[in-house]
């Protein structure tokens, strides 16, 4: 640009001489400016290329669709993992009922099998996600034994226990986070919703598959089906780079272990609601792990995370009671076959999964925030209220109340009311669990290690709820029948939902957005206030 300025000064002097010189010098000025602009553009292009080659400063684009690895991690693995186990909730109750075995044996089985699952979760947290593969190999071997001896109670115990232990969505979610975190929070949320859809599809189809297979081939057909699913879960992760990264770490999170987060690639935009912000390189900062972020996040988010965990425990426990009883209930009360019992159980889960898929593809959350039914204050307030009660955190107590209502419907002797209660229970469970997962993501504050910690705690609580569902269900059924079990669960869900609504109402009321504000922005504001208060206390 300095050369262009010098030529411009010469043009002023020559202009006093003659117009031909002016034309000549003007052309020179234009050429000089063009050359200077081209040089600047070339310089900018080279700078941009150099920035694109710097992995520490630019967010990496990770495709959610069109990639075999992404499809395997978000769709195939969660589907096969959950579907390889949950068929037991249709087939085994019908088998015990047909063989005149006491239901306390089934209750004991469906409780004890969660103990090895709990141990595997603790080991996964300590040693890494790579454990999902050897556990799936063990489950496949046990299913082969089960297929050979389908009527042996010992083979049933061994196979069901191994399948339950191999059920490890926490490991797959952590691998998913490793793969998509460099692309920003919006991509992680989308990937989690696809994962949740596949997981929901798996446990929705599993009872139907279990009913059909048991009606036509007995437990041997169910064992072969479980063998195929666990074999996929044993082999497919070996093709994923994130799995081998977990193997190299083997529970180590120091920079020498090769962890993405240890290499200072922590995405700091987790609290952003906008996809444009989540994919902007300006929102990505390098932060060495251990600089106090995780400790501060745990201190500030301890109470709300505890509330989320209590809500998640209520969600799975109430739903587990329904899972334990639905096959026997509809067989004894309405004379349904195993296939029909599984089909009705499947419909509600698929409905919830379908809504999640639509929200993932169409970005419903962000589009709805821009919609207006009119320019009047009433319409705008109405949209804000609807948005607040259909997203975290207020959607959690609303769904807990829905659980209570649906349990009341399930207890009614009217066939249509009871079936509607069963179907919609699955839909409510899907939305409830997805809301808890997204709240955990927000409270992790962009930290991969903290996210893993919250996932591990959540899954331990989730496993405890699954294990307790069986003794609660069959104990209450033995004490007072099906209606007693459903009424007690209804009251428990409502009892948890009301205090949860009061807690988050008080918590959000102190933020600038109030009850109708965005959840992530409100939590970010509360976290900042908590940090400032801690600094003032330390100063005093």
From TrEMBL:
Gene3D superfamilies hit by this protein: MFS general substrate transporter like domains
Biased composition (Basic and acidic residues): 284-297
This protein's record includes keyword Membrane: yes
Biased composition (Polar residues): 268-283
Region: Disordered, residue numbers: 26-47, 268-297
Transmembrane regions: 57-90, 102-120, 127-148, 154-172, 192-212, 218-240, 305-330, 342-364, 385-409, 415-432, 453-477, 483-506
Domain of life (superkingdom): Eukaryota
Compositional bias segments (type: Low complexity): 26-45
Entry-linked InterPro entries: MFS_trans_sf
Keywords, alphabetical: Membrane, Transmembrane, Transmembrane helix
SUPFAM superfamilies linked to this entry: MFS general substrate transporter
Coiled coil feature spans: none
Protein name per the record: Uncharacterized protein
Organism: Polarella glacialis (Dinoflagellate)
